[in-house]
């Protein structure tokens, strides 16, 4: 994935969490087996079950 695309995807993720969460947003990242794992935790309503598969596959 090109850097600019990854940057935009992360920005969208962070902005969405901030927009829908009534409280704080926690962001963490760590390296695991040469893979950067990112996690965003918020207190928002979450992604509906019917939309989760699509959210994992969008470019």
From TrEMBL:
Chain coiled-coil ranges: none
Claim: ATP-binding is one of the keywords in the record: no
Keywords on record: Kinase, Transferase
Region (Disordered): 39-59
GO molecular function terms attached to this record: kinase activity
Polar residues bias (residue ranges): 48-59
Transmembrane listed as a keyword: no
Histidine kinase/HSP90-like ATPase domain segment(s): 5-50
Record SUPFAM superfamilies: ATPase domain of HSP90 chaperone/DNA topoisomerase II/histidine kinase
Protein name: Sensor histidine kinase
């Amino acid at each position: 994935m090109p850097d600019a695309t990854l940057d935009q995807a992360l920005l969208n993720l962070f902005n969405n969490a901030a927009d829908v969460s009534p409280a704080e947003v926690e962001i963490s990242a760590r390296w695991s087996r040469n893979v950067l794992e990112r996690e965003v935790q918020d207190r928002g309503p979450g992604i509906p079950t019917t939309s989760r598969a699509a959210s994992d596959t969008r470019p």
